[in-house]
Amino acid sequence: VNIRGLFAGLVGAEPGEIALVNNTKAGEQLVLDRLEGLPDGNIVTDDLHFSGSLHNYEGLRRAGWGVRVARAVDWRVPTEAIAALVDDDTRLIAVSHVSNVNGHIADLPALADLAHAHGAYLYADIIQSAGVLPMDLSESGVDFAACNGYKWLYGTHGSGFLYVRKDRQGSALVDRVFPGRAQLRYPPWAEASREGESPVGISPREDASRYETGHHSYIGYAALYEGLKFVDSVGVEAMHAATVGLIGRLLERIDLDRYPSMSTHIDRSPIVSFHMPNAPSLSEPLKEAGVVVTLAPNFVRVSPAIYNTTEDIDLLADALNNV
Ligand SMILES: Cc1ncc(COP(=O)(O)O)c(C=O)c1O
C-alpha cells in the first residue's frame, strides 16, 4: 500500500482522492484558489476554526471577499449558527472537524447537507482528527479536507494531504495546473509527429494528484509513512479509546471548580480544554512536575495520546490542583 492508500484507509477515502500538499493551509488555500464561483459569492466559517485560517479569512474579507464568521456561544458552534449565515450565494463552508481550541467536533454530515442544499461545498480541516477520531469522509459528504502529517499521524512538518471527493475533481475544483512532463514530438526532440497527433503531448492526470505541482518532501513522507503504519497497526478506534480514556481520568481528577471545562464533546473528542485566566503562569509549576501541555492566554489544552499513561494524567491533575 502506498502512502496515499494508507492515509485514505484511515479517513474513509479512496487513494485517488488524495493529493500531497505541503501543509493543511496549503490544502485549504488550493480549495479557495480553485473553487468554481469564488471569489464571488460568500464563504461561511466559524471562530472555532484554526486561527491561522481565520487570519487568512479576515485578510480576504478586508480584500473584499464575502466572508461570514459564526461565533461560538459557550464554546460551541451549533450547525444552526452556521446555517443562519448560509444563503444561495454561499460557495463554501469551511470548518475544523475537531477544534484545536477546545476539541469541539463539527457535525460534518449536517454541514455537508447544509452546503449542498445551497449549491455550496464543505471543507473540513482534519488535522486534529485524522488518526485519532474514527471518520468516513466518503459517507460524511465532505467535499474537501486537508491536514498535515505531524499531529495524530506521527509524521513531520511539510507532509500533508488534501482530500478531494472524486466527483468534485476537475469540476467543482477546476484544473489550473497540469502536472507531468511534456513530450515534444518534433525535430530535434523526436521524429516529426504523426499526422493528427499534437506536436506537444501531455497526459493529464485523472485523480487527485492532478492538484499537485513538483517534487514532494520525500524525506518527510518517508517519516510519515512509518507514522501511518503505526496508526494503522494500532487502529484508529484503539487510538481513540486510549485518548478518550485518559481524558475521562483527567476529568475525574482535576478540580473542575478551579479549572472549568470548555469542552463540548468530552466523551468523544481527543482534546479537552480548561478555562484558566493567565494560564501561561502555570508554565513553571507544570515544568517542575515534568508535564508539557498547551497554555493559551486563557486556557489549558490537553490532548493525551496512546503513548501517555494514567500516571502522566495523575501527574498533570496533581500539578494543576496543587498550584
Ligand atoms: C486546527 C488546525 N489546523 C491547522 C493547523 C496547522 O496548519 P498547517 O499544517 O498549515 O501548519 C493546526 C496546528 O496547530 C491546527 O490545530
Characterization of this structure:
The protein has 323 residues and is of the alpha/beta class. The protein has helices spanning 3-11, 24-34, 51-62, 79-83, 108-117, 137-140, 218-234, 236-253, 283-289, 310-322; strands at 18-21, 42-46, 66-70, 90-96, 121-125, 144-148, 160-164, 183-184, 200-201, 272-275, 294-296, 299-302. The strands form three sheets. A seven-stranded mixed β-sheet has the order 1-7-6-5-4-2-3, sandwiched between helices. The protein is globular. Bound molecules: pyridoxal-5'-phosphate. Pyridoxal-5'-phosphate is lined by residues 23-25, 50, 52, 96, 100, 125, 127-128, 148, 160.
- Major beta-sheet overview: 7 strands, mixed
Distance between the termini: 49 Å
- Note the beta-strand portion: 15-25%
The side-by-side strand order for the widest beta sheet comes to: 1-7-6-5-4-2-3
Cofactors and ligands present? pyridoxal-5'-phosphate
**Share of residues in helices:** 25-40%
Number of E-type strands: 12
Please tally the helical runs, counting DSSP H or I stretches of 4 or more residues: 10
Unreliable runs: none
Q: What Rg, in angstroms, do the CA atoms define? A: 22 Å
Overall pLDDT score = 96
Shape: globular
Order of helices and strands: HEHEHEHEHEHEEEEHHEHEEH
Could you say which structural class the secondary elements and strand pairing correspond to?
alpha/beta
